[in-house]
Amino acid sequence: MFNPADLPDTLAVFPLPGALLLPRSRLPLHIFEPRYLAMLDDALKTPGRLIGMVQPNKVPGRDGTGLQMIGCAGRVTQFSETEDHRYLITLTGTSRFRIVKEMDGFQSYRRCEVNWDGFARDLGPEEQDREFNREAFMDLLSRYFSSRDLSTDWQTLQDADDELLINSLSMLLEFPYEDKQALLEAPSLATRRETLITLIEFALRGGAGEDLLQ
Predict the structure, then answer these.
(1) C-alpha angle 56/181/129, rounded to 5°?
(2) Which of 122-126, 146-150, 174-178, 203-207 has the lowest mean pLDDT?
(3) What percent of the chain has pLDDT over 70?
(4) Does the pLDDT at position 207 exceed 60?
(5) Which of 92, 121, 150 is the last residue of a domain?
(6) Residues 145 and 46 both lie in one domain
(7) What's one Pfam family the UniProt record gives for this protein (predicted)?
């Protein structure tokens, strides 16, 4: 658990379209580009071992790609090196942040000045969603998986806590990166669940056009 005082003012950021990290969730990554190997090496030398995951946007920026204003920092909690000197790592989501500005420097990777205000809840215990209708949600999810010929361990989903279920699906399901950003920026677990339902319903409406979750 981090305290607000432990969070740095600057952060290495990893712009990766579609790769969503949420607080208290885990994101596996395969690191192989030289600049991101350097980023990882530098992060491991710091007490927090934090890397900021952020979605790119269409506004030009450094390296020709802009960055969304809100990302999520993750602590490197697992890593292993392959025989060809690549890394398999796991980031555990710590807190969302807001980018103040991108910094110039000699590093090959990108660094930003960041602000953590407004995201104190991310540092607390897992959230509850007391209005979550799990039965109706699982029915909707089943129709979504069937429409895309996807399979999963349904018992694991049934047994998962609300936050783990909603956040894991938000991270794993394939949506455009703008929609991933909306899931990231949701101010609460309930809002994220509502956003996720809307995205699933929209995807189904484009296919079978059946009655959807109310």
Answers:
(1) 155
(2) 203-207
(3) 93
(4) no
(5) 121
(6) no
(7) LON_substr_bdg
Query: Residues 63-82: pLDDT tens digits?
Result: 557 899 999 999 999 999 88
- Domain's final residue, options 121, 143, 173: 121
- CB 33, CB 85: distance < 8 Å: no
Q: How far apart are CA 169 and CA 58, in angstroms?
A: 25
User: Predicted confidence band at 211 (pLDDT cuts at 50, 70, 90)?
Assistant: very low
Residue 124 has which token pair? Answer: 């607390």
Work out how many domains the chain is built from and give that number. Answer: 2
Which residue is it, tokens 């979605």?
55
Tell me which long-range contacts 117-124 makes (C-beta under 8 A, separation of at least 24).
Answer: 119/95, 120/4, 121/188, 122/23, 122/24, 122/72, 122/93, 122/94, 122/95, 122/96, 123/1, 123/2, 123/3, 123/4, 123/23, 123/94, 123/95
Share of the chain above pLDDT 90, in %: 74
Q: Which domain holds residue 90?
A: 4-121
Residues 161 and 87 in one domain: no
Q: For residue 209, is pLDDT > 50? A: no
User: How is residue 114 written in tokens?
Assistant: 């960041």
Q: Is residue 49 one of the residues assigned to a domain?
A: yes
